[in-house]
Amino acid sequence: MIIELFGPPGAGKTTFAHALTTRLRERGYDVQLTLSYRPAELPSQPQRGRSTAPRYWITPVIHRLSRPLVEMIAIARHPCALSHDIGAAAGLVGLLPPRNVAVAMRFSQYILRLLRSWYHASAARHIVLFDQAFVQVICFLALFGRAPDKALIARALDNSPRADLFIRLDAPIETLTTRLQDRVRRQSVLERLLEPDLTTNLDSIRIIDHVHELLCSRGQLVIRASSVDEGSLRESVDRIEKELVAMFSAERRAIAS
Question: What are 181-238's pLDDT values in tens digits?
C-alpha cells in the first residue's frame, strides 16, 4: 500500500508523516517512510554559541545540490529503466511546463528520482508513506506553469502514478504564514534562492483545492488531516489509523471470500 500526503507548504506534512509512521509501527505494521528532504528541514542556522562561519549555513545548500546528484548516479546504473523514466518525467513536465527553464530542469530531475522511489514502493508488500509525491508535484507544476488550465491539470493527474490513499494536510492561513516566515528566517540567502516566496507558497492552496476535487471525482480516497498542534495531530493520526485498519480488514475479507 502506498500512502501519499499533500498540502500547502508549512502545513506539517513531514511532521505528520513521522507521527503516522511511528503510530503504525507501534501497532505492528511494517512501514517505510519516504521523505522529500527539503533543505529547510536541516539545521540552517548555527546553534547558540557556535561560530557563524559560512560552513554552517551553507551545509543545507550543499545537501540540496549533492543528494540529487548521488541519486541520479545510482539511477543511471539502470539504463533501460532510466530511458522509460526520462520519458515519463518529460511527459509530465511537458503538460505543465514551468515559465522558468531552471525550474523545469529541477522538477524533471525530482520527478525522475520520484519515479524510481515509486517503482520500488509499488513492488513492496508493506506500507510505503510519502510525505509528498506526484500530487504535490502536479500542484507546483501548475503553480509555476505558463498558463495551466484545469484540463491540463486533470491530464497530468491521470498520467501520474496513483496512491492507494491520499492524506491532505490543512492549516489556517495565519498558521501557514507564521511557519513559512519562520522557515525563511532560518534559511541562508542561498537557500532562499531555491525556495518559492511566501506569496507563491500561499497561492498553492487554490490549486491544491482543485486537485483535491479532481481526486475525489475519480473515486480516490482522500482524508483531511491537521498537525497545527499536538491535539489536532493526535486526533488526525487516530482517525487515519482507524481508516487503515478498516481498509486492511476489508481487504482480508475480500481475499478470504
Answer: 998 888 777 777 777 889 999 999 999 999 999 999 999 999 999 999 999 999 999 9
Contact 24, 244 (CB under 8 A): yes
Q: What is the pLDDT of residues 50-100, one digit of tens each?
A: 444 444 444 554 555 545 554 544 544 554 444 556 677 878 888 898 888
Range of the domain at 72: 2-256
The band of 110, judged by pLDDT with boundaries at 50, 70 and 90, is confident
Q: At what angle do helices 59-75 and 101-122 cross, to 10 degrees?
A: 60
- CATH code assigned at 153: 3.40.50.300
The β-bridge relationship of strands 127-130 and 222-226 is: unpaired
Instruction: Decide if 41 contacts 186 (C-beta within 8 A).
Output: no
User: What pLDDT is attached to residue 8?
Assistant: 95
CA 174 distance to own-chain centroid: 22
Distance CA 52, CA 250 (A): 56
In this structure, the chain runs to a length of 257
The C-alpha cell 546504473 sits at 77
The Cα 240–Cα 19 span in angstroms is 11
Q: Are 242 and 185 in contact (CB under 8 A)?
A: no
**How many structural domains does the chain have?**
1
Q: Shortest CA distance to 36 belongs to which of 134, 163, 165?
A: 134
E-only strand ranges, the chain: 2-6, 31-34, 127-130, 165-170, 222-226
How far does Cα 195 stand from its chain's mean position?
Answer: 15
Please give the single-letter amino acid code of residue 154: A
Owner of C-alpha cell 491539470: 153
Residue 213: half-sphere exposure toward Cβ, Cα within 13 Å = 9
